[in-house]
# Entry
Amino acid sequence: MVGRIAAIHNRLHNEYHHDKVGFFGFFETINDFAVAAAMLDTASDWIKARGLDTLRGPMSFSVNDECGLLIKGFDTPNSIMMPHNPPYYLTLLETAGFRKAKDLVALQGGSLLAPIKPVERTERAVKLLKQRYGITIRPLNLKKFAAEVELVKHLYNACWEDNWGFIPMTDAEIDALAKAFKPVVIPELVPFVEHDGKPIAFALALPDLNELLRNNRNGRMFPASLTMMYKLKMKKLARTRVLLLGVLPEWRGKGIDSALYHWLWTKAGERGAGWGEASWLLEDNVGIIQGLSKAGFTPYQTFRILDRPT
# Structure
């Protein structure tokens, strides 16, 4: 076995964007151009036969899943649900005729040496924000998990609908993700912002399970899984990843995102986390990147999505 690839016809993407883009994902290869080219050409032929004119990737399966090729930040390990690959992947893809479609950025903040401490200036700003707009922030209610998932369905598709490459998540997709996340979710790391009792924003952060599994040398989930679940129960993890943070369009530009950053930063620090990752963000999402920079985050990894005509 020297390589692997998946060719993907995402019909929902084509219907939503009115284009003819197909995707490749789950891409793994040795450093051999003949191997990579054979797989990419096979995937290209497969999507071309279905009337598609562009091969885009890596996406496994879409922007709602793991996507992007790591091109900067190879010296740092990947966090949960983020890709990591050897540097030669980019060379192989560019040699095969692929060109940049969009870059994605991961930002980091804090330190692994000590728990996060909230910035006093930000605390004052969030207090004023709550007074000005009459908003409240609350954690996920596990006792009403099904109802909370329904709120996420509405907010996710409303908050991200204008993003590059976005496709709505189906009810089945969100239900499947919720079921997978429920055993490891920490309610305080899934905050909802509400105004007059209605949700206007939310965020999702997860403990970085890769931190626990990285030293599992034999590749088996057992007994590593027991250690992982024990540490999660004790809430003693040094690393956290913010997967999602969205604000309804009519509430943007008012500092709601800053209030969510502060909430996550504070709650993660209370559980011993000293380092956080916000990922991924579109390279041209200047507003969110600037907001994160003010909260102490800096870019440290870059991922690329590439296109090639079929």
In short: The mean pLDDT is 89. The chain has two domains: 3-103, 115-273. The longest strand covers residues 99-110.
